């Protein structure tokens, strides 16, 4: 999901917030439920690593020199919620660690979790109780994020956060005490922003960026595979959703090489040029310089009205949809629609099953491409899951780039395959990142400011 404020405001954001120095030391402990790349039992090497890490940890804590770091990798199994509407993973917060399901969102950069003070607006989602965590620290700045589909508000804090076997002590995040309706669907308790710190409303470095910039990962990148259940009439509300690979790419999930496209400027969103598009084999004109944000937290694909019109012009008997569907188009479900996209390198196809987002009548389908205007200086296209289900995606720290590869037959076989839905886990700690930065940070934008921008720029996106 793309926070509204930045759709209009991106160009005036400071870009000086990358790479705040933090120390990384390996540490081990708090093995609760194990979900690690290497699941072999602890051997002598690991015990010695543990002993070393305890020492390193102590040195770091009491101001000793930064010690060498052990790189690692891990993965988090994803859940596909409501027939490809959203994809969530899990992480754990606090001491003792409590696990939460969070939407995995490469279109924003804040981690937030519903707090125990949230009350009815958080529905039946489980909540984080600061008073139950011995490592909770209140930064006491306000937090208010507006997405096209709703908003969340609370305050900024720090606590230990663990995910996929990694642990970050003093990870900044927001404890949310109010969310707008429909933003949280149980069991989801929050959202993990996987974009860059420059667009973090909380001004906290995102978890992934802390890990990547501190060399905690074997490779400073994360890979995403998302499953498809949209055209599966037997699908349940929750299905296995694919995987988030942290610190490596899983070569079993893709074929050929990964085609990387660099971010053409200061990283904020994961945005890359959109260079060409065909619909039923016919090219759609794309203005030179057009960029697209690659967004796991958006279900569909948004673009400028003129381009969306040009897409549906290639689909006989399609028409603008009305009412709640304003901005979308309907088309005959009997039409198989083939769309191909290129970001300057290879060409990628979208499955006709993903193009047919949903059915609106016995014969009419709603297309996954819809009209939305974004703010000046922001990517004009938002490329969501309707595309990302068709590729293995890689989000690389340095050079900042997004890569795609064709899915392997193993990955494709996981579409619609059913099976056990992964449950929230607390990975064992393979590498810990200690936050030693005491520098005061800018205040989070206040509620009134973001509301003002929302009204002033009318950057309305229904994502
Ligand atoms: C944290 O600080 C905020 C803002 O001052 C306050 O509203 C909130 O109640 C505090 N939370 C806790 C758990 O102390
Ligand atoms: C580290 O602490 C500083 C100041 O308390 C905070 O602003 C920053 O976001 C923290 N970094 C992480 C990775 O949590
Ligand atoms: C869903 O669509 C894909 C691609 O069009 C196809 O391979 C698959 O068999 C379809 N699955 C179902 C259950 O219709
Ligand atoms: C790679 O993906 C395959 C297929 O999902 C899986 O069986 C394997 O465990 C994965 N390996 C790693 C290292 O993640
Ligand atoms: C991806 O697969 C398609 C269909 O098999 C093929 O035409 C295309 O060349 C592949 N792309 C890459 C980059 O390997």
From TrEMBL:
Paired cysteines (S-S): 118-122
UniProt keyword list: Aspartyl protease, Disulfide bond, Hydrolase, Protease, Signal
Pfam families named in the record: Asp
Domain of life of the source: Eukaryota
GO biological process, alphabetically ordered: proteolysis
Stored InterPro entries: Aspartic_peptidase_A1 (IPR001461), Aspartic_peptidase_AS (IPR001969), Pepsin-like_dom (IPR034164), PEPTIDASE_A1 (IPR033121), Peptidase_aspartic_dom_sf (IPR021109)
Domain Peptidase A1: 87-405
PROSITE patterns: ASP_PROTEASE (PS00141), PEPTIDASE_A1 (PS51767)
Signal peptide positions on this chain: 1-19
GO MF entries: aspartic-type endopeptidase activity
The keyword Hydrolase is annotated on this UniProt entry: yes
The keyword DNA-binding is assigned to this record: no
Active site: 105, 295
Family (UniProt): Belongs to the peptidase A1 family.
Protein name, UniProt field: Aspartic peptidase domain-containing protein
């Amino acid at each position: 999901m793309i926070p509204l404020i930045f759709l209009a405001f991106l160009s005036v954001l400071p870009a000086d917030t990358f790479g705040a120095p933090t120390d990384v030391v390996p540490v081990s402990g708090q093995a609760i439920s194990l979900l690690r790349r290497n699941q072999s039992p602890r051997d002598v090497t690991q015990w010695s690593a543990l002993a070393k890490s305890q020492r390193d940890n102590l040195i770091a804590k009491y101001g000793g020199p930064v010690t060498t770091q052990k790189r690692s990798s891990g993965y988090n199994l994803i859940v596909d919620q409501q027939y490809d509407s959203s994809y969530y993973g899990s992480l754990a917060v606090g001491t003792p660690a409590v696990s939460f399901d969070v939407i995995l969102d490469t279109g924003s950069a804040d981690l937030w979790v519903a707090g125990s003070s949230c009350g009815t607006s958080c529905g039946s989602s489980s909540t984080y109780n600061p008073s139950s965590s011995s490592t909770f620290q209140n930064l006491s700045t306000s937090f208010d994020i507006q997405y096209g589909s709703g908003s969340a508000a609370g305050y900024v804090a720090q606590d230990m956060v663990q995910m996929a076997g990694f642990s970050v002590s003093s990870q900044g995040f927001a404890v949310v005490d109010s969310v707008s309706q429909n933003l949280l669907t149980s069991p989801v308790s929050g959202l993990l922003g996987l974009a860059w710190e420059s667009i973090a409303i909380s001004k906290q470095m995102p978890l992934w960026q802390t890990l990547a910039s501190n060399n905690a990962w074997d490779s400073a990148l994360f890979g995403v595979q998302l499953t498809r259940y949209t055209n599966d009439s037997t699908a349940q509300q929750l299905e296995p959703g694919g995987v988030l690979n942290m610190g490596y790419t899983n070569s079993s999930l893709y074929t050929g090489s990964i085609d990387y496209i660099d971010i053409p400027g200061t990283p904020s969103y994961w945005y890359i040029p959109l260079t060409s598009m065909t619909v039923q084999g016919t090219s759609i004109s794309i203005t030179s310089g057009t960029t697209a944000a690659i967004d796991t937290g958006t279900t569909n694909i948004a673009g400028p009205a003129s381009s969306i019109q040009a897409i549906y012009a290639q689909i006989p008997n399609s028409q603008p949809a009305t009412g709640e569907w304003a901005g979308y188009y309907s088309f005959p479900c009997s039409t198989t629609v083939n769309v191909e996209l290129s970001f300057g390198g290879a060409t990628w196809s979208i499955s006709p099953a993903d193009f047919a987002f949903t059915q609106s009548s016995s014969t009419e389908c709603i297309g996954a491409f819809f009209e939305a205007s974004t703010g000046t200086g922001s990517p004009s296209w938002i490329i969501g899951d309707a595309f990302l289900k068709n590729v293995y995606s890689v989000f690389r720290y340095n050079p900042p780039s997004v890569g795609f590869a064709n899915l392997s037959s193993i990955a494709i076989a996981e579409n619609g395959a059913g099976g056990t839905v992964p449950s929230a886990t607390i990975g064992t700690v393979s590498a810990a990142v200690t936050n030693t930065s005491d520098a005061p940070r800018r205040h989070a934008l206040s509620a009134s400011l973001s509301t003002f921008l929302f009204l002033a720029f009318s950057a309305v996106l229904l994502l």
